[in-house]
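Long-time lurker. I teach an intro course on protein structure, and each term I like to show students one example going from raw sequence to a predicted 3D structure in token notation. This year I'd like something fresh instead of my usual example. Would anyone be willing to generate the tokens for the chain below so I can use it in lecture? Attribution to the forum is fine with me.
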Amino acid sequence: MPSHANPVNWFEIPVNDMARAKKFYESVLSVEIAENEMGPNKMGWFPMEMDRMGAAGTLIQGEAYTPSHDGSLVYMHVDSIDPTLEAIGNAGGKTLVPRTSIGQHGFIAHFEDTEGNRVALHESPAS
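-- Reply from a regular --
Happy to contribute to a lecture. Here you go:
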């Protein structure tokens, strides 16, 4: 791995119902998710810009993908956690860990999406 690269460049969030998950993440993050198919898998790609910092990723529905609270945890950057947690609740998700300080690194929170995945939020510290 190049010394200047962050170790994660792609993530996949398993879903059971692509339409429901797409609606949830579009409303919570105010983004448009593009539906695609790769082989037998349905995918919902999050917006991405090539050659920019940060990882891109997808919602994914397929035989080998099962939503879960267990396993890896994806952190999504948001400008402000509290209104995002409110949007999550309004969209059918559930707060698992409320906005919590991580000192000089800002704040985090965990939530459960409409598919049963545990996902996390990160808010940068105030400048």
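Some talking points for your students: Helices lie at 18-29, 81-90. The mean pLDDT is 92.
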